[in-house]
Amino acid sequence: MLRFFPKQARVPLLAGSAAALLLAACAVPGAASAADPKGTKQLTVTTTESKFTPNKLTLRRGIPYRLHVENRGKEMHEFNAADLFKSSKINNPTVLNPDKTELVLKPGETKDLYIIPKKAGRFRLVCPDHDWAGMTGEITVE
Ligand SMILES: [Cu+2]
């Protein structure tokens, strides 16, 4: 009788740990999810004072991209491609600013945007804080 009770108590404890592990696995950023569909291509753009590198990108319609933007500068930079974002499917819109026009990056910050371009064309890329200094670019969707 004395051994029976601890064994019984162990079962819900284990089930609880398994559930906690499962929850932890789901919370890991970058874990396979709806945001990272099969065939996703990664593109990396860095921001510094005062430019995008590269500042010309070519995407293809209907292809899922993970647009990885790294701010390696000492100032705040924005990756603003408002018209492209408007005409695309964005799988994680909460990474954008409230107007859904740009990624805002503090110095040293990195953000990933999951985007599927839907409309062909040439779209303006700009950092509204530093466009006067030439911090502009162009994204072509084919
Ligand atoms: Cu800037």
Which helices and strands, and how do they pair?
Blueprint: H1 4-27, E1 41-48, E2 51-53, E3 56-59, E4 65-71, E5 77-80, H2 82-86, E6 88-90, E7 102-105, E8 110-117, E9 121-126, E10 136-141
The structure holds copper (II) ion (CU).
Query: How many helical stretches?
Result: 2
The unique ligands bound to this protein are: copper (II) ion
What is the first-to-last residue Cα distance? Answer: 73 Å
Which of globular, elongated, flat, extended, rod-shaped describes the shape?
globular
Low-confidence stretches: 6-31
Question: Main β-sheet: number of strands, strand sense, barrel status?
Answer: 5 strands, mixed
Class from secondary-structure proportions: alpha+beta
Strand coverage percent = 35-45%
Account of the 3D structure:
The chain has 142 residues and is an alpha+beta fold. Helices cover 20% and strands 37% of the residues. The strands form 3 sheets. It has a 5-stranded mixed beta sheet with strand order 2-1-4-8-6. Strand 1 and strand 2 form a beta hairpin. The longest helix is centred in the N-terminal third of the chain and has 24 residues. The termini are far apart. The site of copper (II) ion has 6 residues, from loops. Copper (II) ion binds next to loops.
